[in-house]
Design a protein that fits this description.
Chain A is α+β, with helices and mostly antiparallel strands and about 260 residues long. Chain A contains nine helices and nine strands. The termini of chain B are far apart. The chains are: A alpha+beta (about 260), B mainly beta (about 100).
Amino acid sequence: MIQKDGIATQEMIDSITPSAERRSKGPVAVVECFQSIPCNPCYTSCPRKAMKELIDINDMPQVNTDICNGCGVCISHCPGLAIFVIDETYGDNQCLIKMPYEFTPLPSEGDYVTATDRGGKPVCRGKVVKVVNTPMQDRTPIIHLVVPKEFSMIVRSLNINDIYDDNTYICRCEELTLGELREYIRKGYTTLDEIKRITRAGMGPCQGRTCRQLIMNEIAKLTGVKPQDQLMSTFRPPVKPVKLGFYAQEDTDNE
Amino acid sequence: MRIEQHPILTFPAGKMVKFTFDGKELYGKEGEPIVAALHANGIKVIGHSHNKHRPRGLYCAIGNCSSCLATVNGEPNVRTCITPLCEGMVVTMQNGKGVIK
């Protein structure tokens, strides 16, 4: 119930979803405003007059999708943060969603984040391609988020933590998760060797072939020391697993 | 599940040989990686990790990650992705570090 939890029902969403034909043509504004309230900045801000005139200020907005070109000016003008621009032509099976985001910290361009639905539930991994935050936005920054196309009408917010997060296994052999790794780095274990000694990561069957680079990247993220400037752990032979019997055999041959 | 046709790779017709996995009789192409023969028979879990006992199987497929370790003919810790299949092989699931008899 929207009156209770503020989340629009599927029926409501269906009523304002632009046609598949229109969506395939390029960016378009989606106005998810479902309450008769005296408010009209969406109408007054549109430079193309794509918003149907509000005869009564309590009228709910309607977008003329033939005129709307998805410029996104209305996004930051909506006090209810109810306007989004979706662009299903962004890339192969990808969709660009421009959304208002009034939280700190802001994500940065290039960040991978958790794309969430209207209720805040994680949906998929999203990539932030642009953060628009000029005086024009009047402290309602607009995030450009790229998600798979099928989520164009589902993803409506984001959580700045990457969905591949704390429960992701970094070291498969000794089963160290990203959450545990970050905890250790924060505690002060900031070199590969220290992490190895405290967690055993890199000492399992694969000998660090899977996790070494991942751990160094994570240390770089949290401490700012680039992987190439970090201390490497020592590489010792054998490079590949060798049976003990192999060495024993060599010995008897030399006698 | 086997790839029969591929635009670049060719798969020479191999002799089908009999082997067992946990006592179950299976058939695979002679000389293909053991784990490939198991996959073709629909078996994807061939061991469990030593720490949290999570399922293990094919991961890197090039002998790097030691995720596909299994016990072959009584010998534990065999990297099944780079070990060719032979007639009559006895493969058993390896849970944890394996036991050397």
